[in-house]
Amino acid sequence: MKEAHPYYDLIVIGGGCAGLSLARLLIENESTMRVLILEHRDTYSDDRIWCFWEKSDHSLKNLEAKAWASWQFSCADDDIYSHKSDSDLAYRCIRSGSFYKHIQNHIDKSAHLSLMMSVRVNDIQENAQSVSLTTDRGEFCSRWVIDTRPLQDHVAERLFGQHFLGIEIECDQEVFDDRVAQIMTNMQQDEFGFRFTYLLPFSKRRALFEETRFTRSASEEVLETELQDSIKKKIKGVGFQECRRERGFIPMSCNTKPAQQNSRIVQVGVTAGAARPSTGYAFLRIQAWALECALALSNGAQPTRQTVDPAWMRWADRLFLKVIEDSSNDVPEIFLALAKRMRPDHFVRFLSDSAQPTDLLRAIYALPKRPFIAGLTGIPRLKPVAR
User: Fold this and answer.
1) Among 377, 348, 369, 332, residue whose Cα is nearest residue 73
2) What is the pLDDT of residue 256?
């Protein structure tokens, strides 16, 4: 642990994906800013996996745990559809434990960046020239603050989004086809809403199972029961060991609070709209922000805010969310229609952050028309939002 100073050029609250991604890129750009990252956790653990569609030459290739060139969707009635990429595009994943360790090593060697663990921010006060932070480890002052903290529980409980519970297991025998990522399988709808199983096979014996529900609230007991049922159904009595667990919530909302343009406190990450509202994918969007922000800071400019999606994408996401939250619609059929009727690379672009207006047109052609025409009622015309 480096010696703490009272004043910094930049303080980052939160040493998670967004905070450490920025740290990595500041170091790569040889920034001489004095930066402090404040993280509330005592230690890092391999607590999650980040997945994204990308080509093989991406900047974090050395941390990649697994890539799948094929992915699968299915409904509870065994209506199955598989995609295989027709390019270098693949579904890739990075383990958080590898990510944390890699960037911590770079921070430890940096003369300008420091990471302080086990610290909680109690108060933030902004004035014209700086921002003061009161923590349980002392007081700090900075020209700028980037706040990456997640939504507070009482706020998250009111939002529609993806509630998930996952277990990574190691089986005693070969069970899995490790060539295919099962992105949304066993899709179905019940009194609690839309649900599906997410299965990532890392080898023929090891895989991550996740049960996911799109809803405003989800019982952990219900998710646990569904998760255990999915594992039993898949491995058919084969013995296994539980390796780790993960639990999370990804908001699916277009109502991100607009950034205060003149504030010295910049909110980023999922709280500020890093996750694509209609899909929940965030990792590449966070990397894009981190690169843009690191370049700006390295050139003496102020930190950049999370990029606002174009108006057409926000309009499409708002409509899509309205339709899938309506329990009267056949949500499994909606996702299966996209998988069946769109080419793999077009489908991936539509779900990820590289979508173009032409991909929206392809999705409109693929989707069942009735629920979306009905959903247009009450969807306002969106105006461009200032960055």
Assistant:
1) 332
2) 65
Given the structure tokens 């690191």, which residue do they identify? Answer: 294
User: Do 15 and 115 touch, CB atoms closer than 8 A?
Assistant: yes
Other beta carbons within 10 Å of 362: 20
CA torsion, ordered 334, 339, 343, 345, to nearest 10 deg: 110
Query: Which residues lie below 8 Å from residue 281, measured CB to CB, with a gap of 6+?
Result: 51, 52, 275, 351, 352, 353
What is the Cα–Cα distance from 302 to 387, expressed in whole angstroms? 13
The Cα–Cα gap between 380 and 315 comes to 8
Q: What is the pLDDT of residue 357?
A: 85
User: What was the pLDDT predicted at 232?
Assistant: 97
Given this model, what pLDDT does residue 387 score?
45
- Taking each helix axis from N to C terminus, what angle separates 357-366 and 344-351, rounded to the nearest 10 degrees? 110
Q: Amino acid identity of 304?
A: T
Domains of the chain listed by start with CATH number:
7-48+94-154+253-298 (3.50.50.60), 161-251 (3.30.70), 311-375 (no CATH)
Nearest Cα residue to 65 out of 95, 25, 108, 110: 95
Task: Enumerate residue ranges in the chain where pLDDT < 50.
Answer: 385-387
Supply the Cα-derived Rg of the chain in whole angstroms.
22
Q: Are 221 and 241 in contact (CB under 8 A)?
A: no
Query: Alpha carbon of 270 to those of 151, 252, 304: distances in Å?
Result: 8, 10, 15
Nearest alpha-carbon partner for 145 in 119, 118, 126: 126
In contact, 161 and 251? CB cutoff 8 Å: yes
Full DSSP string of 353-373: TT--HHHHHHHHHHS-HHHHH
3-state secondary structure of 37: strand
**Alpha-helical segments (H) within the chain:** 17-28, 96-109, 153-156, 220-235, 283-298, 311-325, 331-341, 344-351, 357-366, 369-375
Q: Which two tokens stand for residue 362?
A: 């392809």
Provide the 3-class DSSP secondary structure of residue 235.
helix
